[in-house]
Design a protein that fits this description.
Shape: globular
Structural class: alpha/beta
Order of helices and strands: EEEHEEHEHHHHEHEHEEHH
Distance between the termini: 48 Å
Number of strands: 10
Strand order of the largest sheet: 6-7-8-3-9-10
Strand content: 25-35%
Radius of gyration: 18 Å
Number of helices: 10
Largest sheet: 6 strands, mixed
Length: 244
């Protein structure tokens, strides 16, 4: 019997294989995200973390396996229909529109929505999460600092009113003060009711905020478990937390 929407995990990935030409990038990846969770995916560069997100959002179509969102299979769905179903992503490298203002970039996150009467309320929510963006709302996005651009990219994803938020390396290249603020906001967004799948190289901070975690190595899930258990795992401590 197939699952009905609302049953089981909000996101379920089963035995997903993705290829780039002849390169076998994902080799049977399985993971899940439950309602209300922050789940983190950690691993070295090239392990397959971003490829996993691209499989979820429809940019890399799996050759084998299944991806289900709210009980519905989305493995072969188009990227725009996946966004419309309720999955939004803040991509690695932020990818803002540099010549557009902060406000215009945020509005782009809501381009598939028809409930324009709620835009102002959602914009206020973003500005409450990131007061610095309110101060810079008329500024061109390309002139913002790296940390401000990351705030804008996350805010743009939130403007879609996602049922699941995908974050790809949100702390990359940021000053420590911005890293701290970004992770505080991830927790805040989650506490407001949005589950999060977090891809992050800063394993220590990612495991601090997550409920559960997966460790990727060369296209496979090498370890999984509660975040607090992964933090004390000898292999994780040596490889990803820089501890002997």
């Amino acid at each position: 019997m197939s699952e009905r929407p609302g049953d089981g995990p909000i996101l379920q990935i089963d035995d997903v294989h993705v290829y780039y030409g002849a390169i076998h990038a994902l080799k049977g990846v399985s993971l899940r995200v439950q309602e209300g969770e922050i789940v983190t995916l950690i691993g070295a560069n090239g392990a397959g973390k971003s490829t996993t997100l691209r499989a979820i959002n429809g940019l890399n179509r799996p050759r084998q396996g299944a991806i289900r969102f709210q009980g519905r299979e989305i493995t072969r769905s188009t990227p725009h229909s996946i966004v419309k179903s309720g999955i939004a992503q803040s991509p690695e490298g932020r990818r803002l529109f540099p010549r557009m203002s902060v406000t215009e970039n945020l509005e782009m996150g809501a381009f598939q929505r028809t409930d324009r009467e709620n835009f102002a309320e959602d914009m206020d929510r973003v500005f409450e999460l990131f007061p610095r963006l309110r101060e810079r709302r008329m500024q061109k996005a390309g002139t913002l600092s790296g940390g401000e651009q990351q705030m804008c990219a996350i805010g743009r994803a939130l403007m879609a009113r996602p049922k699941l938020l995908l974050l790809d390396e949100p702390s990359m290249g940021l000053a420590p003060i911005f890293v701290e603020r970004i992770f505080e906001t991830i927790v805040e967004v989650n506490e407001q009711g949005t589950p999060v799948l977090l891809v992050e190289q800063n394993a220590l901070m990612a495991l601090d905020v997550a409920k559960r975690g997966y460790v990727m190595e060369t296209g496979r899930i090498a370890l999984e478990g509660d975040a607090k258990d992964l933090k004390t795992n000898d292999q994780v401590r040596m490889t990803y937390l820089g501890e002997a």
